[in-house]
Amino acid sequence: MKVRRARGKPARERGADVPRPSNTDERRGQIVDGLLDVMAREGYARATIAAIGKAAGLTPGLLHYHFGNKQEILVALVERLAAVLDARVEARLAAAGETPRRRLHAFIDASVALGEDADPRAVSAWAVVGAEAIREPQVRALYTQAVGTMLSRLRALVSACLREERRTTRNAGRIAAAVLTAIEGAYRVSAAAPGVLPEGFAAPTLKRMVDGLLQAEEES
User: From CA 82, how far away is CA 67, in angstroms rounded?
Assistant: First the structure.
């Protein structure tokens, strides 16, 4: 039986045109998504390997093949959540243009606004991650890095607004910290007590809050 060769580029070159994720990457992604599903519904303590495997549609043996233990899956999830939020922020900032106040509002929208790019599972999981960061040093390091990056970006956005309005920037760090803790607080309460907070309140309320804080700063 003759094997017919495909015309055109050799297979190696054709494959290079459209890179595909490896089977390992796909499986790891499925497992991390399984943990996300379980954590969003039941928290981290109940996210057993069996439960994660069931949510991912994979056997426990495959989970152990790709990850040494549950904590390794959690670390991968933290990295994913941070990357997804960063991408969402970048997209909103790009759409906002160069006006400082619009960019600051876009950051708040990216963090807490509802919309097609919002994932309620991610909010619940991030709240759980914050709790696990108290107990797990590796998770704490990743969480601290992610929160620190958010705070630095917020401070830069707040400072840009104050400079454009010719106001002092000496409290820019405190204003950024207030906004960040309000964002994190909204995550915690919405995850721990679903339905208690008014739906969609966070983004418009935080934007009014930061506008008031900016307005209160002295002119330079």
Answer: 20
Q: How far apart are CA 102 and CA 95, in angstroms?
A: 10
Q: Residue 33 contacts by C-beta under 8 Å, 6 or more apart in sequence?
A: 55, 56
The partner residues of 187 in beta bridges, in order of sequence, read none
145-154 pLDDT, tens digit each: 999 999 999 9
What whole-number distance in Å separates Cα of residue 215 and Cα of residue 219?
9
Q: In the chain, what are the domains? A: 20-68 (1.10.10.60), 70-216 (1.10.357.10)
pLDDT single digits (tens) 3-26: 333 344 443 343 445 445 568 889
CA angle 85, 125, 108 (to 5 degrees): 35
Ranges of the chain whose pLDDT falls below 70:
1-22
Angle, alpha carbons 88-90-207 (nearest 5°): 75
What residue type is assigned to position 134 of the chain? I
